Amino acid sequence: MSTLTEAPPPLAPAAPEKKPPRKRGRFTPYWLLLPGILWLLVFFALPMLYQASTSVQTGSLEQGYKVTWHFATYWDALSEYWPQFLRSVLYAAAAAVLCLLLGYPLAYLIAFRAGRWRNLIMILVIAPFFTSFLIRTLAWKTILADSGPVVSTLNTLHVLDVTNWLGWTAGDRVLATPLAVVCGLTYNFLPFMVLPLYTSLERIDGRLHEAAGDLYAKPFTTFRKVTFPLSMPGVVSGTLLTFIPAAGDYVNAELLGSTDTRMIGNVIQTQFLRILDYPTAAALSFILMAAILFMVTFYIRRSGTEDLV
Amino acid sequence: MPFVNWLKRHLVVIAGLVTLGYLLLPNVIVTVFSFNKPKGRFNYEWQQFSTDAWKDPCGVADMCGSLSLSLQIAVWATVGATVLGTMIAFALVRYRFRARGAVNSLIFLPMAMPEVVMAASLLTLFLNMGAQLGFWTILIAHIMFCLSFVVTAVKARVMSMDPRLEEAARDLYAGPVQTFVRVTLPIAAPGIAAGALLSFALSFDDFIITNFNAGSTVTFPMFVWGSAQRGTPVQINVIGTAMFLVAVLFVLFSMVVSNRRTRQKA
Amino acid sequence: MMTTDSSGDVRLSGIGKTYGSFTAVHPLDLTVPQGSFFALLGASGCGKTTTLRMIAGLEEPSSGTVHLGDQDVTHLPPYKRPVNTVFQSYALFPHLDIFENVAFGLRRRGIKSVKKQVDEMLELVQLGEQARKKPHQLSGGQQQRVAVARALINHPKVLLLDEPLGALDLKLRRQMQLELKRIQTEVGITFIHVTHDQEEAMTMADTVAVMNAGRVEQLGSPTDLYENPQTTFVANFLGTSNLIEAEVDSKTGGEIVVRAGGGKLLLPEARCSASTTTGGKVLVGVRPEKISLAHADDAGEISEARNRITGKIVDSSFIGVSTQYVVDSPACPGFEVYAQNIDRDPRLVPGAEVVLHWSPAHTFGLDAAQDIDAGVETVEEEAA
């Protein structure tokens, strides 16, 4: 049997990015890269540095700002705006979880159950993108209007009593409450959950489902033990693609929320565009960036998808 | 218990369709309310049916101007991002060079960054440089954040392409330029098209970065934003509905065409 | 799950499968006795895989029933059937390591302590060292053995193998054939094996069912199928046959005399599957290795009792153990003859006039109403 161990190389090696062969024209790649990379360096990386330096400046709009390594700005910003930071993380996390719960069945439906309707449903998921998201978000004002059918139904079913008690809504309204903001965030970023989920579900070999069934797994066990673990790359990228933009968003909080639902994006926007307190705004956006990078790294590590992707 | 069994078997389908409904409900509202005749300045409550707005879509001051500005910016941003992004994608897949990891991170980071952070830092740069905010700063910003998406889309396509195809072309007497034009580019085209389409949609619909870097220039999303404060004209629903329809028809049309082509080939 | 353990017979009664207007499997009856190694052989699209999937429960039959022993399992979902499958290209779970892949079925049935069983099973397929590797880290042959172990550990009544060796190269395939045969003998479970490779089916199986266009053409032991094909499809699909269109001349004492190309041939009546009447048509067949080849000059030395045909060599290829000749004769163009390279006659080169002769006992007769070329080509195309 020892001959069997000299079998041919693995059929499906974990192929990372293939190393492309070295070609003639040693400088060609650099010429190809130059304009685009320069663009990103000047208009993405350099601004980050500017912002870092702005965040430790002091001064005023009239007299100009100087770098004084005034790190206290960070402390002041954090101690003043921690509720908004916390709110952003909570709302964004809630929206990401809701997106996952709502988006998974839809992605599953498209990948495995839609048959010839697959393309049509796919179009319906993507098409709303072409109506300005601001217009669509404003439509939620109509849907969740105080006198509208949604609110009255929730009222009749006493759902609002529960959400009031939880602090998600206030009085007989949904608009201008955390629930409305989270609902808007979920709605706005849902396609960013559905699409990566669909991609990773669609890649699963159908025979794996059959094999699980053959090995005594009931349909739900098959989902729990085979389908879901194999869709983890989609789950991870979907939650990231919803959490990150939701955490920095201020449109939903502004249009559907109230002063009690202000998120960190609203604060940064106001500081920058209305109050013109550049150091504080820069510090806030730096903290947001650092926090998100930290959480994302931790999340990817924890979910252990590195060897899956 | 046949009903319970039926429900059990189709639970996923029902849940998926509920989500689809959630995704499409606002579009339905937008469409319905484009036929509304609101009482006050805001178009949030149904009053009575009217086709006034459809008859006079540009009847609101500045709206169509902002729409055309947004379209122009979207077109130029798409062109810029597609050209630059495709070049980067080719360099990444087809060549070996130093600092590959750094380039990859530089491409990835803009996609993993909240828009408000990029918007604020870019504004800091423009203010420091004393740049005049307007058309050009918006365009620069849009090319910047669309670039990464184009690179990702094109890269995926070029990577799945068999490099032996190019070798075969060269073996069959095609020079480097001919190989690129006749073989590489046609095969990469779907990836490039996807990247371009995505750029157009992202640029046209962008609000946060634009809002920071536009100065006094008003794009269509900014017009909508402003009207949310001042009063929402019915015409923005007309525009929203029209864009939705155009997009759906465009996709359906291209699907029919590609279906027919594959059927002819078969 | 099972009421009796006495019988692992698989009984298919009239099961068939249609997709819309296309009939993948015509209603067929088949009994696979317990403990046998059974092969379903046929070209792709002949319905063999569909039949297998109906036994596994992955496909609902359009008609008929599937019984395992006394139990009717026709409408049981796969996870409730005491049947396991080795899938084509294996379908190993890529997110689980080898140990967990093998333990999957046991865990689903609520068995807590799986370690001992899994270790034993991995020993059986000689993969003890690889337990903690992921499937993609193994070679094709190793993956194949994991797939077998993963199915066998559940002690199914029947193990179904769907082209289990299709993804392996030739040399490895030979080794795995012997290996699977060894395992089957060791565990004594019924194996039903789907393949398009006639050599594989003949090497491994006790009983082979040859399928064509959704029907079972013939069923029997490999020797029986090879020596006594009942249809032209079987004659051509299993090995090579020379088929001669002939006319029945007379019948005497258990032998049929037929006329073909001006000569007369003898055919034992017992080996003729078609009903024959004097003056009727019949197809006379003989395998290429049963034929002896003599130069026309030596024709006088051939015994009168043998069937003989004259012709001219048009092609010869030297294979090492044998030489394969193609001979054109008035009775049949493109006659194939395999001659052992014992004493090579230097006169037997293309262009030479020759006499082909064989024992009448090696002749078989087939119904002349069939397509004479059924089942030719397809084999080599797919075995590649």
TrEMBL record, chain B:
GO terms for cellular component: plasma membrane. It comes from the Bacteria. CDD domains: TM_PBP2. Residues 67-257 form the ABC transmembrane type-1 domain. It is found in: Cell membrane. Its main location: membrane. It is a multi-pass membrane protein. PROSITE patterns: ABC_TM1. Keywords: Cell membrane, Membrane, Transmembrane, Transmembrane helix, Transport. Pfam families: BPD_transp_1. The chain crosses the membrane at residues 12-35, 73-93, 105-127, 133-154, 180-202, 234-257. GO terms for biological process: transmembrane transport. Belongs to the binding-protein-dependent transport system permease family. CysTW subfamily. This is ABC transporter permease. It comes from Streptomyces brasiliensis. The lineage of its organism: Bacteria, Bacillati, Actinomycetota, Actinomycetes, Kitasatosporales.
UniProtKB/TrEMBL annotation, chain C:
Keywords: ATP-binding, Cell membrane, Membrane, Nucleotide-binding, Translocase, Transport. It is an enzyme of class 7 (translocase). This is Spermidine/putrescine import ATP-binding protein PotA. Part of the ABC transporter complex PotABCD involved in spermidine/putrescine import. Responsible for energy coupling to the transport system. PANTHER family: SPERMIDINE/PUTRESCINE IMPORT ATP-BINDING PROTEIN POTA, SPERMIDINE_PUTRESCINE IMPORT ATP-BINDING PROTEIN POTA. The gene is potA. It catalyses: ATP + H2O + polyamine-[polyamine-binding protein]Side 1 = ADP + phosphate + polyamineSide 2 + [polyamine-binding protein]Side 1. It comes from the Bacteria. Belongs to the ABC transporter superfamily. Spermidine/putrescine importer (TC 3.A.1.11.1) family. PROSITE patterns: ABC_TRANSPORTER_1, ABC_TRANSPORTER_2. The complex is composed of two ATP-binding proteins (PotA), two transmembrane proteins (PotB and PotC) and a solute-binding protein (PotD). Pfam families: ABC_tran (PF00005), TOBE_2 (PF08402). Residues 10-238 form the ABC transporter domain. GO terms for molecular function: ABC-type putrescine transporter activity; ATP binding; ATP hydrolysis activity. The lineage of its organism: Bacteria, Bacillati, Actinomycetota, Actinomycetes, Kitasatosporales. Its EC number is 7.6.2.11.
